[in-house]
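Q: Hi! First time doing this. I have a protein sequence and I read that you can turn it into a structure. Is that right? Here it is:
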Amino acid sequence: MGQIDSTALDTVVYGLSNIGHYNGWNIAFSGILVVFGGLVLIALTIFAFNKLSALVETFRTKSETPKQPAKTNISLTDKEEKIPEEHLVAISVAVELYRRLHLETLQSTVTFARGELNSNWKAGTRFGLRKS
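A: Yes, that's right. Below is the predicted 3D structure, encoded as structure tokens:
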């Protein structure tokens, strides 16, 4: 019962024939089929949600009565007004000063703070537990 058959150790098969020996091809094919089947189901679900949301949106817009826009006497021209550079500089300085005074600092700056670390990993050197 607890003995190992010595002939089983001598008949180790390497290569592609070993894959076929224990139904490896069937297991691999079924795994690939399950994975890609799941991916197809996810894609179909996303597609169905997009179609459903578009259908709900069209139903919502059809049910609402369109409102008449208020008539205005403002005439739009294709001519753009050029803003002087002095005004642009003044606006950008005002925005920067407001950001520095009232908004949080940017998190993209990298600083290296010096000081004693409060880590238990570094405590061993203080008590002589780890010596280099």
